[in-house]
Amino acid sequence: MRTLEHPEPGVLRLETVLAALADPVRLVIVRQLANGCEDQACIAFELPVTKSTSTHHFRVLREAGVITQHYRGTAILNNLRDKTLNERFPGLLDAILRADA
Amino acid sequence: MRTLEHPEPGVLRLETVLAALADPVRLVIVRQLANGCEDQACIAFELPVTKSTSTHHFRVLREAGVITQHYRGTAILNNLRDKTLNERFPGLLDAILRADA
Fold first, then answer.
1. Mean pLDDT of B1-21
2. Full DSSP string of A39-100
3. At residue B37, does pLDDT exceed 70?
């Protein structure tokens, strides 16, 4: 099974996480992951962008350490790394989720 | 006296603020403003960049609504818009200042 790379918690950088979150489409993804259930498939997000742009946004979030992605069959399932983010950057995710959309 | 434009609190956008903060030099500026006194001149910041790059970074922060800038003679003085940021995005600035540099 193909696996995708994820940064370890210790190497997450604040400016990289902020840059990953500094995009309206990626904020939609993060809010949906925060409000929804586990293992949300990429195709379950109704995003106003093409599939390849959507794939790019998910990859940016994963590489910054904001989400995990893993394969189930041909689907890619996503989860918010809220525990890791809350440990590394206390209060940041909550403040962003609390802000006006 | 020449004045510089600042966005009204109501038009500040989360993704624009996050993008402004998603840069190591701009985080240094924000931390120094948060820890220092009022009206800090641009030249008082020891930044590892050229003067024109530094000017760019201050402008990005001002246009995103993170700092105010005003002239005193030929100097430009900077202040953190912490009250505005705390009202619009509660907890965000504190979380960012609390994070590891």
1. 94
2. SEEGGGS--SS-HHHHHHHHHHHHHHTSEEEEEETTEEEEEE-HHHHHHHSTTHHHHHHHS-
3. yes
Domain ranges, ordered by start, for chain A: 9-100
What contacts A42, CB < 8 A, 6 or more positions away?
A: A54, A55, A58, A75, A76, A78
Closest to B23 (Cβ–Cβ): which among A15, A23, A27?
Answer: A15
Does B1 score more than 80 pLDDT?
A: no
pTM of the complete model: 0.93
> For residue B22, what is the nearest residue in chain A, using CA coordinates?
A15
Q: What's the pLDDT tens digit per position in A66-80? A: 999 999 998 999 999
Nearest residue on chain B to A91, alpha-carbon basis = B95
**Chain A contact for B37 (CB, 8 A cutoff):** no
The topology (CATH level 3) of A9-100 is Arc Repressor Mutant, subunit A (1.10.10)
Q: Which residues of chain B lie closer than 8 angstroms to A91, CB-CB?
A: 91, 94-95, 98
